[in-house]
Design goal:
mainly beta, 6-stranded antiparallel β-barrel, 264 residues, 17 strands, Thrombin, subunit H
Amino acid sequence: MNKKTGLSLVSVSLILLGVVLLAPGRPFAQDQIARPKIFDEYYQLITDSDLYCSFYMLEDGKPRPEIRIIGAELMNEKNIFSDADVIYINQGAVHGIEIGQLFQIIGLREKIVPYGYVTGRHARARIVRLEAEMATAKVERGCGPVRVGDYLLPFEEEEGEIGKDDGFGDLDPAAGITGQVVYVEHDFHIAASGQWASISLGRQHCVQIGDRINVFHRAKPNLPREAVASAIIIDVRGATSTVKILGARDAVAIGDEIQLIAVR
């Protein structure tokens, strides 16, 4: 192929490429690029992880569940169990337990005075063998440590929530219900975006799942408060709730003030 013929082929190729790109109804490459998730206005505010792996407060005066883990197949080898491990529970067919029945495993953690015990959702358990007074189950979808002595509750499917984070800012303290952060799940007692915390507002304060709050911090008790985070309520009890931090410009700490900003 001579030099002239090569240049002609290049020219033809460039013309054809231009026709394809300018053809009616065909989007340009940049139009086909998906928008990054960070720019999406709406996203999953309450996820499966929030619903089935978070914690709540088992408040003082509330009875503990009757169904409990009393042993495990490998309990002589380890004391923490996870997916596919076999566990034994203290109820069976005479108590209404059925093969295939699904339970949620919960474990009590530290006590928070004056509220109650922080209770973690650690896994699911499916009944695989049944006796009169006892049942065998397999652990599923573990997201926390499962131990002998943990409790079981009938598993209930819950719905997440799609929405957007409206951010945080100054609020009139007299214009909404206020409380404080009473627990966060870290040794340093601080939480950041995407993490969970317990607050001192519950059903008795007329809050419900999906309500939004702002979190405020004071450098000193006698100084003005500053908004540091937004959060959404993911679980409600009598006097407490669990929230998920949506956005934060600073760490959320135990003792920080919270204020309800949006009620369903």
